[in-house]
From TrEMBL, chain A:
All residue ranges annotated as the ABC transporter domain in the record: 17-250
Chain segments annotated as coiled-coil in the UniProt record: none
Name used for this protein in its record: ABC transporter ATP-binding protein
GO molecular function terms attached to this record: ATP binding; ATP hydrolysis activity
Keywords: ATP-binding, Nucleotide-binding, Transport
Alphabetized Gene3D superfamilies for the sequence: P-loop containing nucleotide triphosphate hydrolases
Entries under SUPFAM superfamilies matching the protein: P-loop containing nucleoside triphosphate hydrolases (SSF52540)
InterPro entries noted in UniProt: AAA+_ATPase, ABC_transporter-like_ATP-bd, ABC_transporter_ATP-bind, P-loop_NTPase
Organism, scientific name: Actinotalea soli
Automatic annotation (TrEMBL), chain B:
Source organism (scientific name): Actinotalea soli
Name of this protein: ABC transporter permease
A Pfam family annotated for this UniProt entry: BPD_transp_1
Region feature (Disordered): 25-50
Primary location class: membrane
GO cellular component, one term: plasma membrane
Topology of this chain in the membrane: Multi-pass membrane protein
Record GO biological process: alkanesulfonate transmembrane transport; cellular response to sulfur starvation
UniProt xrefs under InterPro entries: MetI-like, MetI-like_sf
Superkingdom of origin organism: Bacteria
Amino acid sequence: MAITSPTTVRTHPAHPVSIRDVGRTFPARDRGGRDTPVLAGVDLEVEAGEIVALIGASGCGKSTLLRQISGLDTPTAGQILVDGTPVRGTDERSAVAFQEPRLLPWRTLAQNVALGLPRGTDKAAGRQRVAELLELVGLGECTQYRPRQISGGMAQRTSLARALARNPGVLVLDEPFGALDALTRLRMQDLLLDVHAAEPTTVVLVTHDVDEALYLADRVVLLGRPEGAPRGTASTVRTIVTVPGTRPRDRGDAELAHLRAGLLEGLGVHAHHQTTPTP
Amino acid sequence: MTILGSTGTGPVVDKDGRPLRALNQFDTRGDQPVDPSSGDTGRPSPARRWNPLATRWGRVGLGLVVPALLLALWQLATSVLGVFAPHQLPAPTAVWQAAVELATWEVGPTLWEHLQISTQRVLLGFALGSVLGLAVGALVGLSRLGDALLSGTFGAVRAVPSLGWVPLLILWMGINEDSKVTLIAIGAFFPVYTTVASALRHVDQHLVEAGRAYGLRGTSLLLRVQLPAATPAVVSGLRLALAQSWLFLVAAELIASSMGLGFLLMDSANNGRTDRILLALVMLALIGKLTDALIGVVEKRLLRRF
């Protein structure tokens, strides 16, 4: 697939993200119930243009952290800075793609992508940008289709195009490929890397898939409750793994396999990984 | 010798660059949607028997079968077999004669004047009631405060049977157009209010969140995400409201009026004109069906996008 760098609208420079001592406690649902602490003392610096993957067990607060970066949720402690200024509600610096495509069924793909355009985009420029983005994600011929007429993978690509239409300084992806079949997922991963190469924005993504994290990210952040802490303790950053090598990476690389085993152990899964002694 | 060329990832082509269909049947570049109508199987389609369900006019024709049978049965039972006395059930021909007579009636309002005033009342009441229903429904469906404040009260008001309003409306507004249109508006209000409130309350929260994530707030969120998502329910609410409007029209006209189909019903009953009673009923059925069909067309156009 040919990747052409879009020219019509200036891309936001990639923004750094600072997560400083962030905590989130969900209040009890009814009187007498207990508050649920989900995150506590999360510190993370994401550099501009970096790809960071968050992994962790179900319910560990990955998605909550992601929603806070995109302004859909607010931390109860600490703060999150995008490009040095605090996040207060959703704004145009970041764009989010959800686990489900969440396309508006009554709009065409082009109209759905146009939803992502920053306010005040010139009409003609906006149209051209939408066309370029749909071309970029390989849907150039489907611009007038409606979401119910396309497959799940195509819908997810449209969702990615919509996020890119924002020209985001930070691209926030919540398990973007989780609901796709294995083959489509591999294609989408490569597409994301192509897009990142063409428009090097900062990417923070949540995934359940350790292999995906290692294939895509510069750094993999393992979230979870501190070692030995009882159930119900808030999660924090357990480990940060810097992934060696440059993209595109060899999916079968031995060093990655080693890191993979370590991360799986961190998630509480035994990897059955044999370390072969190097001569 | 010419070797069939392949451009690597593209389709297999002949020497002129035209794709060869037979060699490209597994060409699944990406996951393009498949248009089943483009599949050329090369076989002629078998000659099919005539199926009336396949065409629109066929379906309309089938819909007319039962009314035609009823009409025939009616004629048979009255003028041929004489099962009913004419003052109980006049023949269809007598009803038709009553229609012709009333169309050029000189003593009182003509059939057209009855139809016109009734339609006018229904349209005014329906418009008023559904606009209010849309507004209050939106308030209750979107705002938890609105829900808490209003839904109980409106639920209770809704429980009042339609005829219960008549004495109060006459007392307040008098016997005139206002009280009739108000009664019809009350009838049209509730179906719209209920469906809009519940549809907006149940709009997919994922879509709403996606809208918020892309900077939509308040009115823009309502207009771009919530209302379109609720459109199918809103349209069916409007349809119900229209049917309810005709119901309330007859209630309003039966009680106090000097014109309209409801008046024609009442007046004919008082004068023993069974033929005109039947005429009024047939008119209500026809015009109700006609307005419903009009809304059906609008519905079809709106929902084509979903």
